[in-house]
Design a protein that fits this description.
This protein has 2 domains: 137 residues, 3-Layer(aba) Sandwich (Rossmann fold), CATH 3.40.50; 110 residues, 3-Layer(aba) Sandwich (Rossmann fold). 39% of the residues lie in helices and 18% in strands. The chain is built from 11 helices and 12 strands. The strands form 3 sheets. A 5-stranded parallel beta sheet has the order 5-4-3-6-7. Strands 8, 9, 10, 11 and 12 form a 5-stranded mixed beta sheet that branches. The protein has a two-stranded antiparallel ribbon with strand order 1-2. Strand 8 and strand 9 form a beta hairpin. The protein starts with a strand and ends with a helix. The model has no long low-confidence stretch (mean pLDDT 96).
Length: 259
């Protein structure tokens, strides 16, 4: 009857939490998808979906700098955080007062497991099961039009940083029909020579966390003249939870652009 989050914190799956604060955007999106509009009290300034919630909820700061006093003033009974999005310091501080569930989502199965656990915590088991079934249907029904395309997915400039192995981005690249040419883990810094050695067919320039624009692609063309460049929305590759319901249609359009 007990399960643990990624930090080893234990939760009783018979207890339902009803006063929630979400500390990262895709968590907020998931809570909305589970029908928890009334239960969510606070969100971050980066939680842009659903669009109306910023006017309805208390904005409790950012993912890296949440306002502790503002959160506690809401009298939540559960705070939902993420190992990559939020800081250990903030989580440890908040845990002195309120249970904090910390997720870590790297694989597709991690994502489904996370949805299941959030459903247990919030009394939305049936909705979570339905959502998991919908996500699995989208995954199974998507067929990339060709074999895997060698891709370099960049997330930052100055220095150039890429999404590597052991990331949710890498998982979504694979499901989208791309082969990640970066073999290093997490988010390595790459120089021009390293990018040339990777020899990607396509370079995907994400809209977040760094908003790539045309001049950045021009810089990269001098380094990788043989590659094609695509500006891509970050959410289909980076947002876990319920957002991938939209991702596979987006991936199909990307492949249309490539062909």
């Amino acid at each position: 009857m007990i399960f643990q989050d990624t930090t080893g914190q234990s939760f009783d799956n018979q207890k339902v939490y009803r006063r929630l604060v979400s500390l990262f955007p895709s968590q907020t999106h998931l809570l909305h998808s589970l029908g928890l509009d009334e239960q969510v009290l606070g969100i971050t300034r980066f939680c842009k979906y659903p669009s109306g919630w910023k006017k309805q909820k208390t904005v409790v700061g950012g993912t890296k700098d949440p306002k502790i006093e503002r959160i506690l003033a809401l009298n939540p009974d559960l705070i939902l955080a993420n190992k990559e999005e939020n800081t250990r310091e903030a989580v440890e501080t908040l845990r002195r007062y309120v249970p904090v569930y910390v997720s870590e989502v790297i694989s597709w199965q991690d994502n489904l497991h996370w949805i299941e656990q959030v459903g247990l915590l919030t009394g939305r088991q049936a909705q979570a099961r339905t959502l998991i079934g919908q996500l699995e249907n989208h995954r199974r029904n998507f067929r990339p039009p060709s074999g895997p395309v060698d891709a370099l997915y960049l997330i930052w400039r100055n220095p150039w940083m890429a999404a590597g192995q052991n990331t949710f981005i890498n998982t979504m690249l694979r499901l989208a029909g791309f082969k990640n040419v970066v073999t290093q883990e997490r988010y390595p810094v790459l120089d021009a020579r390293q990018m040339q050695a990777l020899n990607p067919q396509v370079v995907l320039l994400s809209s977040e966390p760094f908003p790539f624009k045309a001049p950045h692609a021009d810089e990269l063309r001098a380094i990788l003249p043989q590659a094609r460049f695509l500006f891509v929305q970050g959410e289909p590759f980076t947002w876990m939870g319920s957002y991938p319901l939209q991702s596979f249609d987006y991936f199909a359009k990307l492949h249309e652009n490539l062909t």
